[in-house]
Design a protein that fits this description.
The protein is mainly alpha-helical and 337 residues long. It contains 14 helices and 3 strands. It folds into 2 domains: 35 residues; 274 residues, Cytochrome P450 (Cytochrome p450). This is Cytochrome P450. GO terms for molecular function: heme binding; iron ion binding; monooxygenase activity; oxidoreductase activity, acting on paired donors, with incorporation or reduction of molecular oxygen.
Length: 337
């Protein structure tokens, strides 16, 4: 009888291990399947698109190495670069806030991931990259084939910074650029578009990302957006934008804060890089674009977007919604003595 029990236990353990491996494999395939539109649009092959467990592990490890190498001196330099980029971009009387944030976010992304000098980047090619990524991303959500013209423009612009890199597959620099840059500029833009006291804006913005946590598959594994709006954890104003909630937050809410995923799907940027980079860039924007010197204008005037930004309602998820946000320098009154 003892031998039978032992044999049964070993068989059970083997079956359990095989089931776990199968379940993990299914999750990975599900994630890769839902992101095939990005493969079609950008010809990438990374942890979000590959069905290979081995390659996913290697890619994630490389990403962690890139993101964990930053020390205090590096963060000070990043903050200095961000402020310098904004100062240079704010020399005119008016500026498109959307373009400014995208440009800054991409330059800092290229600096942190590939050690490129952000102050030595040609704005024309940076603009070509940001606009092309946006256009191809929008097209990827439709049945329309990626624009050959836009794809060519993107590849030519990337070649200016990475002349020896491949433009497709595992050697495509977009494998790292897209995950780091794409969410970054949207979070920074929406956080910097709202006015609030010196509170944890980056955390509040991460918890309010529109449609930022729904698994794009037939079966919803986790709805992060709803997790961030549970009244019993986040308060009666859980659906509102309220950075002050972080001053006296329940311990349970901290555990339910998952903008960078959880369990088997934790983003390599979760621990330090992601939250720190968002905070640094939002702080730079708050320092350079003050209410005393600048005014925010929306077109058309009186649009719903304007009401949302001035209030505390959830923001619209459409990436094109905020393209018409302009900031304009206030006129300085000269008082004659």
């Amino acid at each position: 009888m003892r031998t039978i029990i032992v044999s049964f236990s070993i068989a059970s353990m083997v079956a359990y291990v095989l089931w776990k491996l199968h379940a993990r494999r299914e999750r990975n395939i599900s994630t890769a399947y839902s992101n095939q539109r990005l493969v079609r649009a950008f010809d990438i092959d990374n942890a979000f698109t590959s069905k290979s467990d081995e390659y996913r592990k290697l890619f994630t490890l490389e990403a962690r190495v890139k993101l964990s190498a930053l020390e205090e001196a590096d963060w000070k330099r990043i903050a200095s670069h961000a402020n310098a980029i904004l100062q240079y971009g704010l020399t005119e009387q008016q500026c498109c806030l959307d373009s400014l944030v995208r440009s800054m976010s991409l330059k800092i992304t290229l600096h942190t991931l590939f050690k490129l000098d952000p102050m030595d980047m040609d704005d024309k090619f940076i603009g070509d990259i940001t606009s092309s990524i946006n256009d191809l991303w929008v097209e990827s959500k439709t049945s329309v084939e990626p624009s050959a013209t836009t794809t060519k423009k993107l590849r030519q612009a990337l070649a200016r910074f990475f002349p020896n890199a491949e433009s497709s597959g595992k050697g495509n620099t977009l494998n790292f650029i897209l995950p780091a840059y794409e969410a970054l500029w949207r979070v920074v833009l929406s956080a910097s578009s709202r006015s609030a006291a010196p509170l944890p804006l980056h955390k509040e913005r991460l918890s309010r990302v529109p449609d930022g946590g729904k698994t794009a598959t037939d079966i919803v594994i986790a709805d992060i957006e709803k997790c961030h709006r549970i009244h019993s954890l986040w308060g009666i104003n859980a659906d509102k934008f309220d950075p002050s909630r972080w001053k006296n937050l329940k311990a349970e809410a901290e555990g339910a804060f998952m903008p960078f995923g959880n369990a088997k799907f934790i983003c390599p940027a979760k621990r330090v890089y992601g939250p720190m980079l968002i905070a640094v860039l939002v702080a730079a924007l708050a320092k350079q674009i003050t209410a005393e010197k600048w005014t925010l204008e929306l077109y058309p005037a009186g649009s719903e977007t304007g009401h949302e930004l001035r209030g505390n309602e959830a923001l619209i998820a459409d990436r094109k919604t905020y393209e018409k946000m302009m900031i304009r320098k206030k006129k300085t009154l000269l008082i004659k003595s």
